[in-house]
């Protein structure tokens, strides 16, 4: 076998394919502008692990499935004043947890939002005031009261599976 023949040359084995270095550089330079498009594909995986609802009455973000998504969530945590973690009794994270947010007023509870947290971390931006956050884990609803503070302050909640 002639070592100068390219496996890309499908015409015949008698006619070697001679790619010159300048031609290879032109091909490489032509592909470089497309590199950001290919790189964005990896970022989409991270974005797919989070859900954001800033257009809603309650701005929120959930995710944290996988190490990269967990790091991304932690980077934006400071922008949210209520941070919730869903886990089992051993400390393993839980995902796909339905939750509700209700505004509490004297003698009145008003549900203002309901959704499903895609990952173990749920971050909420709530106007200052009292709220009830509820989550359904293992088919059982748990609720906790929280006092949302001003921007820059944060309150942390944990919902833990009571199952085995």
Uncertain runs are 1-19, 23-29, 34-48
Average pLDDT works out at 76
What is the C-level CATH assignment of the domain at 50-160?
A: Mainly Beta
Helical fraction equals 10-25%
The largest sheet, given as strand count, sense and whether it forms a barrel, is: 5 strands, mixed
Strand portion, in percent? 35-45%
Q: CATH homologous superfamily of the domain at 50-160?
A: Carboxypeptidase-like, regulatory domain
First-residue to last-residue Cα separation: 66 Å
Overall body shape: globular
Structural class, please? alpha+beta
Description:
By secondary structure, the protein is α+β, with helices and mostly antiparallel strands. The protein has a domain at 50-160: Sandwich (Immunoglobulin-like). The protein contains 3 helices and 9 strands; from the N terminus they run ααββαβββββββ. It has helices spanning 21-31, 35-48, 67-76, and strands at 51-52, 59-63, 82-87, 97-105, 108-117, 121-125, 129-137, 140-148, 155-160. It has a 5-stranded mixed sheet with strand order 1-2-6-3-9, covered by helices on one side. A hairpin with a 2-residue loop joins strand 4 and strand 5 (108-117). The protein is globular and about 40 Å long.
Brief digest:
This protein has 164 residues and is α+β, with helices and mostly antiparallel strands.
Features:
164 residues, alpha+beta, Immunoglobulin-like, five-stranded mixed sheet, four-stranded antiparallel sheet, disordered N terminus
Question: Could you outline the blueprint of secondary structure elements for this entry?
Answer:
Blueprint: H1 21-31, H2 35-48, E1 51-52, E2 59-63, H3 67-76, E3 82-87, E4 97-105, E5 108-117, E6 121-125, E7 129-137, E8 140-148, E9 155-160
Parallel strand pairs: 3-9
Antiparallel strand pairs: 1-2, 2-6, 3-6, 4-5, 4-7, 7-8
